[in-house]
Input
Amino acid sequence: MAMQTVVFALAGLMIFDGLVGPQLAPKNLATVGAWVHYRGLVVIALLLAGNLFCMACPFMLPRQAARWLRERFLAGGLALPAFLRGKWVAVALVVLFFFAYELFDLWATPWWTAWVALAYFVVAFAIDMVFRGASFCKHICPLGQFNFFGSLISPLEIKVRGAGVCAECETKDCIRGSAGVRGCELALFQPRKVGNMDCTFCLDCIHACPYDNIGFSSRVPTRELWADPFRSGIGRFSARRDVAALVVVFTFGAFLNAFAMIKPVYALLAALQAALQASLAHALHATSDAPGLALIFALGLVVLPAMLLTAAGAASRALGRSLGLSFGQAVGRFVYALVPMGFAMWLAHYAFHFLTGALTIVPVVQSFLTDTALYRAPIRWELGPLVPLSWLFPIEAVLLYLGAFAAIIVAVQIGMDVARPAPRPARQGLALRMALPWIALVLLLLGFGMWILLQPMEMRGTFLMVTGGAS
Ligand code: SF4
Ligand code: SF4
Output
């Protein structure tokens, strides 16, 4: 709660500055805080620790108030309707958010950034006031889903220390809760919990367990992707098409999001705009980017992923035909090999913004304090990049290569797990053959990612953006 209170106060300041402060993105707390620091620090925390940002989530405090109102006035509240459960709503919201982000240039608009944050608070509060459990976190919140996706590669997880203690335990307080202490609202039963999916690092289970049998545990990053056990509160990954869709949207979305901020995309948008208007006889609005952008999104998030996954799944199935896997089983297992590659692209992209704009926070805070008459010294507008600009590409490239390396390891490990029923002499060859199409897909994404990083990129959120600088 201490972390949540600090982040809640920071969010309040950002919203205030977004609504009434200077409307130039690199001068405003809302845009610099949300699009440079929040995003940069989220991916660094996921890489080095785990889902620390859900742990410190500023929406938790209003959600506590919503819970109190629900229990007092709505008889405990309703269960979330079945059609809203799972990740499909979150997948749709993530796509909608990516689209709106590009269409309305949210990174450049303090006022809209503040309204998006305010709307987030209102929706989180409203959903948790009506529906019981952590419905918003588990099924709706796009930021939370991104953290769940990223935490699949994190080096820490929250898990039981000793299975024997759980076997003897009669109260199961970690899931049921006890007087005044909540059990896991996300329906993750510790003895059967596997990995980080759906875990907000809220620590409720740690507080609830009467035997102090739960704690942070280190692990080999990505390891939870190698096998497909039954996971408490989730089931098997291979049976969850919605979770697979989330992985696909975040993986291909990482490349699409980075692609949207390089110079060639503007030429592509203009060409699409012209083609669409010619073919639809001016039925579309002459100045709107929406139709062209929608076409790029349809290609990047639906058509291309469908084609690539179909090819990789069919090839994988054919190469491992002796195992008798269906096409759906092949895709359902191997698609998780893409997680490290997708995360690496987010990391490289957000690291770019963070490294070029991290120190902007100093003059922005000075300016904010000057406006409130709390600071009188000169404002250090010259501050911005954290490292020399010539370091950016090597850093991003190393992150991308490491992501590809991890993705290849995961593909081979999944192959080893899938090929387990095969006789031992044939097992390794079979595993490698089945993994090959996915390794090829990872290398294709790596090549595309490197090409994106080599393009001139918008310096969003820094003064280099205003003065027209580019990498
Ligand atoms: S309350 Fe503690 S000991 Fe009991 S099942 Fe949960 S984690 Fe295990
Ligand atoms: S209660 Fe424990 S298992 Fe459940 S979300 Fe919080 S930290 Fe994760």
Q: What stands out?
A: The chain has a mean pLDDT of 89. Residues 424-454 form the longest helix (31 residues).
